[in-house]
Amino acid sequence: MNTQRVFASVAAAAIAALTLSSCQAAPATEGGVTGAKSDLHACMVANSGNIQDRSFNQAVHESLEAAKTEYGIQTSETVSQSPDDYTTNLDAMANAGCDYIVTVGWELADATKAAAAAHPEIAYSIVDEIVEGDNVRSIVHDTAQAAFLAGYLSAGLTKTGTIGTFGGGNQPPVTVFMDGYQAGMEYYNKAKGKDIKLVGWDAKTQKGSFTDDFTNSSTARTVAAGLISQGADIIMPVAAQAGEGAVMAAKEHGDDIGIVWVDADGYNLLADDMKPYLVTTVEKHMKPAILEVMKSKIDGNFTGGNTVGTLENEGVGLAPYHDWDSKVPAELRAEIDDLKAKIASGEIKVESQSSPKIA
User: In whole angstroms, what is the distance from residue 93 CA to residue 237 CA?
Assistant: First the structure.
């Protein structure tokens, strides 16, 4: 169990939300609303992953932490231990006086929709899924665009001619990364006349390697080791905290293996001994979107709808290369920058059947 403000049980959620996660007003600063006290109570209901999942749960948690400093709000958080907890946790948050509730993960879509309908006075967001409702702002990301850049980068860096990827589950928020990764590799092959191969995923059949778990690093290590045995020397795990197993497999094999992290910059989240293996991260920039929604609620002009992160609006992107910076040739670096601009402008279309579908 995490040591952060995670409720010990759903039965205690309503009480804990009122007592464990409150914060004091941040100190006032010059030049804006930063530090101004707001009576907004912002709450988070996570899926069955941990708050500190080195991935999107942690990114949403850090967005709430940033809102404390920015707006002086009160926050509460809870993790769902199973699907049976989704509705219970959402009810507990509503009963605890939450004004804004963000749910994390496509699995919470139905529960979020029902909760929003039952509590029209509360503003809701859901990350990684679209839920319709006048009081729901869905926050989704077309990560295929940024993963395309990672696929091109990996194809340009591989020494074996093989790269790999695997997921925590065969579901759209996962496979959208994998589709984009393959597309970027294929674009590299066409542009360079190469034959770099991808193991662990086939976008055409939508089949590949999965751990069916987002927390078990042991399973992920086994899957990653299998991809390494097939020749992959750059691997992108799309498996949240379980993805640490891919770094473990890389460490066991040697320093010739690189890992592409996802969701939030892994270099800032993983243990120091894992950092040298991180090539980059395919990021979802969730914090600006969540802060904007909270600000609109504070200002009284919140509206429902959809926020879609793209390369054009900087809602997705690649993290810095960090320890791999010297390993990325200047020519390849420039090509990545050029591709980013062309995708953002629409000159290059990155398509995935798992990309967010906005009516």
Answer: 32
pLDDT at 13: 36
- pTM metric for this prediction: 0.87
What is the sign of the dihedral through the CA atoms of 206, 209, 213 and 215?
A: negative
Q: Give per-residue pLDDT as tens, 29-76.
A: 222 334 457 899 999 998 876 777 777 788 899 999 999 999 999 999
DSSP category for residue 340: H
pLDDT < 70 positions in the chain: 1-36, 49, 359
Question: What's the sign of the alpha-carbon dihedral 98, 102, 107, 109?
Answer: positive
Q: Rg of the chain's alpha carbons, rounded to an integer?
A: 20
Q: What type of residue sits at position 281?
A: T
> What distance in Å separates the CA atoms of residue 267 and residue 315, rounded to the nearest whole number?
19
- Please say whether the beta carbons of 258 and 157 come within 8 A: yes
**Tokens standing for residue 75:** 């926050």
- φ/ψ region of 125 (left if φ > 0, alpha if ψ in -120 to 50, else beta) reads beta
Alpha-helical runs (H) found in 72-210: 85-95, 109-118, 143-157, 172-192
User: The tokens of 310 are what?
Assistant: 């793209």
Spatial strand order in the sheet of 100-104: 74-79, 41-46, 100-104, 123-127, 136-141, 305-309
Euclidean distance between CA atoms 133 and 114, whole angstroms: 10
Helix (H, G, I), strand (E, B) or coil at 331: helix
Determine the 3-state secondary structure of 196 from DSSP. coil
Secondary structure string (H, E, C) spanning 17-78 = HHHCCCCCCCCCCCCCCCCCCCCCEEEEEECCCCCCCCCHHHHHHHHHHHHHHHHCCEEEEE
| Two tokens, residue 87 | 């509705």
3-state secondary structure 197-217: EEECEECCCCEECECCCCCCH
